[in-house]
Amino acid sequence: MTSSRQRSREYRGSCHCGALAFVYRTTLELRDWPIRACQCTFCRAHGGLTTSDQEGSLVFIEHEPAMLHRYQFGKRVTDFLICRRCGAYVGATMPAAGKGLGIINVRALPSVFGQLPEPQPMDYDNESRDGRVARREQRWTPLEADRREPRPSS
């Protein structure tokens, strides 16, 4: 897949109830987003389809901090971000080399969902912990500091 990069674009997504949100910045065209369908039990149960851009940026916003649940399983290197109220999985984060990295669940970004490429099934079950971290360090999006801010009034 060839990647076409132009100016950075900003995409805003959230859980269903709006308690948790994110701002994802990338210069990748929508048609070039790498859409991954992880085959682990967690991602299959949540219908997770993720993307990232190692040259982009990502910030997660807690409009209602009490609604954020950080779930870990398996190798315990990743915090999966889930809303306690509506149950939506919005993305995941992990620390790496003194910085944070993250991915978004594109299902929390309905404004672009129909414009994205077909998801590629991914199976990471046989990765070692170190291998998993190394892969993510090459692919995941650098995090800006997560923020807590009130939900914008409508």
Care to describe what's here?
- The chain is mainly beta and 154 residues long.
- The chain has a single domain (5-148), classed as Metal Binding Protein, Guanine Nucleotide Exchange Factor, Chain A (Beta Complex).
- The protein contains 2 helices and 12 strands, in the order βββαβββββββαββ.
- Strands 4, 6, 7, 8, 9 and 11 form a 6-stranded antiparallel beta sheet that branches. Strands 1-2-5-12 form a 4-stranded mixed beta sheet, with no helix packed on it. The protein has a two-stranded parallel sheet with strand order 3-10.
- β7 (79-83) and β8 (89-96) form a beta hairpin.
- The protein is globular and about 45 Å long.
- The termini are far apart.
Question: Top keywords for this entry?
Answer:
Metal Binding Protein, Guanine Nucleotide Exchange Factor, Chain A, 154 residues, six-stranded antiparallel beta sheet, 11% helix
